[in-house]
Structures are given as C-alpha cells and as structure tokens.
Design brief:
By secondary structure, the chain is of the alpha/beta class. It has helices spanning 22-33, 78-91, 128-142, 145-163, 167-176, 180-189, 191-206, and strands at residues 14-18, 37-41, 54-57, 71-74, 94-97, 110-114, 117-121. The chain is elongated, with a radius of gyration of 22 Å.
C-alpha cells in the first residue's frame, strides 16, 4: 500500500540517528539541512570535526536515547536497528529503519532540491535505486528554470494575496501559475519578465498591484 507523502518542518526539533556509518552520516547531513538538531549515537568515535547542530554520543544505543526525540533513524547493524524500531514504537516516536524499511513507520523518497523547489520520488520501498534513477530523470527534464520560477513565484505570492480579496480570483490566478507558459517565459526572458506579466494580470483584474505599500 502506498504511503502518505508529507514534508516535515523540523526546525527546532530533535532527531535521533543510531549508527554513524555512511548511511547514518547521510541522514545527519540531510536532517541538519532541514533545520533539525541531531543526536548521533554510535560506539565508534566520530573522527571528523563535528558539524554545528549535531551532538555525537560515542556509546552503545539504549532506549533512553529516544527521550525527547521527534523522529528516530536506525542506521546501524540489523540487530541494533530492530531494537531501535521496537523501542521507538513503544515510546511513540516515529522511526525509520535502514536495514528493514517495512519495519519502521516511514521510508524516505529519493529527493532533488534546488532552492525552495523539492522533487521527491518513492517506490513504496520496492526499489530505492529505481526511485533515484527516476528522480534524476525528472530533475533533468525540469531543468534549472524550474527552481528559478519557483523562487520568483514565492516572492510574488504574498503580494498577489494582499491585493486580491476575491477568493475565486485568487484561486484562478494562483492556479494559472501551473501553466507551462510561465516556465517558458522564465527560461526565455528571465525573472523580471515573470514579475511584469504577473503585475499586468493583477492590474487588469484590480487596477492596483504596485509594491504592496
């Protein structure tokens, strides 16, 4: 059964990563990039400089490590991961297991990020390699303009919402941004052309756009 896709705001949250081999280190890096505070547990010492926002505990995992955690990632040996999953479920902490994805509460998609744009591809755990390949193909098809357009529209959205009081008009203009012509406009003429066209459309509807003052 397919899972429920969700993007989590991890700023201010503390996340446990058990096992700091290559997989665990990738998890810690991704979590830090998402704004989480990370507690990493592994009996082997972390030989490199510890990045800001990551606390390393060079000790064997124990259930007490889960106290205060919003999420947990089990990235150690299978027997340790099984213990982490069992303890986390008993403690009500959502957990992901690298060695047995079906045992945990969630799996991670293959992700491509560019600025504020994120593309995620999942295969419900059937083939992470296929998910990564499809992610790369989709990212190539989107091209660099997709992230740029997304950034410009994020800039313009608050102004559009401020100027348009009619909910149906808002919905129509914002929904129109999904039209491929906007990506073509950005790719051909750049960000200012998108700003000018949005302003033209809003002025046509309201007679007023301006700087938002």
């Amino acid at each position: 059964m397919p899972g429920y896709a969700i993007e989590l705001d991890l700023h201010g949250r503390t996340v446990l990563v058990v096992g700091l081999g290559p997989v665990g280190r990738r998890k810690t890096a991704g979590l830090r990039a998402a704004g989480a505070r990370v507690i990493g547990v592994d009996p082997s010492p972390w030989s490199d400089e510890v990045p800001e926002g990551i606390e390393i505990r060079a000790e064997a995992y124990r259930a007490g490590h889960l106290q205060g955690m919003s999420l947990a990632f089990a990235a150690g040996p299978p027997e340790v991961n099984a213990q982490v999953v069992g303890d986390a479920k008993a403690a009500g902490v959502w957990v992901s297991s690298a060695s047995d994805p079906t045992a945990g509460d969630f799996t991670l998609p293959a992700v491509w990020r560019a600025g504020g744009l994120m593309l995620a591809v999942a295969t419900s755990g059937a083939s992470p390699a296929l998910a990564a390949a499809l992610r790369d193909r989709a990212a190539l098809a989107l091209g660099p303009g997709a992230a740029g357009l997304s950034a410009v529209l994020a800039e313009l959205r608050p102004r559009v919402l401020e100027r348009l009081s009619d909910p149906e008009l808002r919905r129509r203009i914002l929904a129109d941004w999904a039209d491929p012509r906007w990506l073509d406009l950005f790719a051909t003429h750049g960000a200012q052309a998108v700003r000018d066209e949005v302003e033209r459309l809003v002025v046509r509807e309201t007679g007023n756009f301006g700087s938002g003052s």
